[in-house]
Amino acid sequence: MHTVHCRTRRCSLPCHLLQARSFPQRLLMQDKSTVELHRYRNAEGKLIVLYDDCERLAAAAAHQLVHRGYDNVFVLTGGLASFGEKFPAYVEGDLDS
For site-directed labelling of 22, which of 31, 47, 55, 69 has its Cα 20 to 30 A away? Predict the structure, then answer.
């Protein structure tokens, strides 16, 4: 699983999911990508999970990736805060910041 947070660098500093990679949504909207995204694109048994604080940016980024032919893109329901409340061991940093 490749986890990507779609927040801006300034917004992503307080906390993030363990092993998540930062790739701001605005770059995805400009047709930019990463080697890791290409490696995971439609690969057997691989998922690309996008998240932000409230799903808004991640949903737009997922829509853009699906439009580009990615079939294995998912958005973390409820965003980081909701996930962190249920699974705090998977969040690095302080959710309250």
Answer: 69
